[in-house]
Amino acid sequence: MKFRYCFLSALGGGLLAALLVVGLGHRGAENLIFPVDGRVTERFLADPPVPIDQPLPALPAAAVDLRLAARRATPTVVHVDARVEGRDRATVKALFGREESSGTLGGEGSGVIYSADGYIVTNYHVVQAADNITVTTADRRRYPAEIVGTEPKTDLAVLKIAAENLPFLELADSDAAEPGQWVLAVGSPLGLTSTVTAGIVSAKGRNLSLLRDPDAIESFIQTDAAVNPGNSGGPLVDAEGRLLGINTAIASRTGRFQGYSFAIPSDLVKRIVDDIIEYGSYRRAIMGVEISTLTAADLQRLGLVDRSEGVVVDAIFPGGAAEAGGLLVNDLIVEVNGRPIRDLPELTEIIGRARPGDRLTLTVIRENKSREVTIDLLPADG
Question: Which of 155, 224, 267, 275 is catalytic?
């Protein structure tokens, strides 16, 4: 993973001109480069530069106050302690990375109460392979927890404890989240329970190639709120104290926070968690295609004109929804149900949130002509 930053600000005066290097800004955070399915992709903001003689908008007099959001979120966050018994020690240490002085193997992380009757959301990697799970609430009550269901391809898990009338968070609309808005990360980093950190949304739709499954769903919200080991599975909340995502990963060369953290968006969390609670597993819908983000090589190969974003159809599976709907190899998908599609993570998230039987209207570019293709999604196990 490479990081490239541009820090340039011109400072004019009647008799003096100087260059001032400034800290990470909105535009700098957009210049991350990530490998996606072996391809290097780069995305820049397309906003035109602000003229140097144009005055900047005035900032509000009062600073942002996040105390109410913290008061709402903190009681809903739990500490998750996972223990493993009777397993091969080398294998379990590789999974959890922790061995206590007692010789017990396990891992720990965070979670967030999803409903008043004891359902809790956390990361799959927090409870993976665990035999015994203990949940500690913000008021220090301890409960044994059972795993209701997991979805490794999104790194989500749902736990259940025997409790009632628990506090829980209203869900935010993660589609409406914007770079620059304030967020809080709440959890138990490094064993420090009920820790609150603040930052802003840095970007949306990040794919880190973190999950190993070829059909994994990665479309993370990127923030600069400090997240460390132990935060995994805890909530990312907006300034109103609503659940915006589940903190999952950091970009780091040291194993500790270095400026960027990543959360599963709440709209995707709700879709998967509701299925797990109702059916015991995630009922996934599929299009029956192999797809990839548009590259410079694709532009040249397909002779595309005036196109720089979208998702290319690389293969069509026989008998799948895409074949039935008339999608073709080398079609460039640029919209789904009227929503612009810039890259692979955006499209995989939309499909991941859809249900089997849902109808999607795709706008595709075929031989430099725009057309619509209607697809009725099929169940993944169908």
Answer: 155
Q: Would you tell me which CATH number, out of the four given (2.40.10.10, 1.10.1040.10, 1.10.240.10, 1.10.10.10), belongs to the domain 174-272?
A: 2.40.10.10
Catalytic residue among 125, 188, 238, 261: 125
CA-to-CA distance for 298 and 302, rounded, in angstroms?
Answer: 6
261 catalytic, yes or no?
no
What is the token pair recorded at 132?
């015994």
Active site residue 308: no
Q: How far apart are the first and last CA of the chain?
A: 37
Q: Which of 110, 232, 266, 292 is catalytic?
A: 232
Predicted TM-score (pTM) of this structure: 0.77
Question: Which amino acid appears at position 136 of this protein?
Answer: T
CA distance 340 to 351: 14
Please tell me the class of the 68-160 domain: mainly beta
Query: For residue range 270-286, what is the model confidence (pLDDT) as tens digits?
Result: 999 999 999 999 999 99
125 is catalytic: yes
